[in-house]
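User: Could you check the structure of this?
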Amino acid sequence: MKRIIFLFIMIAIFISAFVFYQKKVRYNLVTISENKVYNSGVVAPGKLPEFLKDHKIKTVIDLRDGEEQTELNPETKKQVGAEENAINKISDVNYFNLPTDQIPQDSTVQKFLKIMDDKKNYPVLIHCHHGVGRSRLFSSIYRIEYENFSNEDARANARYLWELSGNFSKGSEKGKYLLNYHKRKH
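Assistant: Sure, the predicted structure tokens are below.
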């Protein structure tokens, strides 16, 4: 019995360490397309210059609003502004703030696609607060539009672990959005 308890404690410590590392050290960074598109959570303004340089990022798309604080959107307008100010001090890096709800308006998606259509903007970092919801949704739209992923493949790649895990399951709002997303006609 002591071995089982010890095993569970060790597993809990490992999972906690992994989550801490992923969120606080790596900022939930995911490579969507090597040297082109990255997805993350918020990076502290003081760490942005090094972070952006390390990944050769030319454009940051910030999906946060800062107007209304909720559990999913805890940042304030001041925090969003601090990031913009920090990025504006870095030469050759563009900053776009595209505030969006968990399910975006068509007008926001069109603004996003206009940014992504400009090859001079790459490599691009797409981020929201946690790096697992809105930014993954927009990264999936990127995959559908520019990498010819099927809607199902883009949705499946956005999931965190398995089919029934929240955000991008087939029955979730984001999962349904991606499955019903209509690619532009070129």
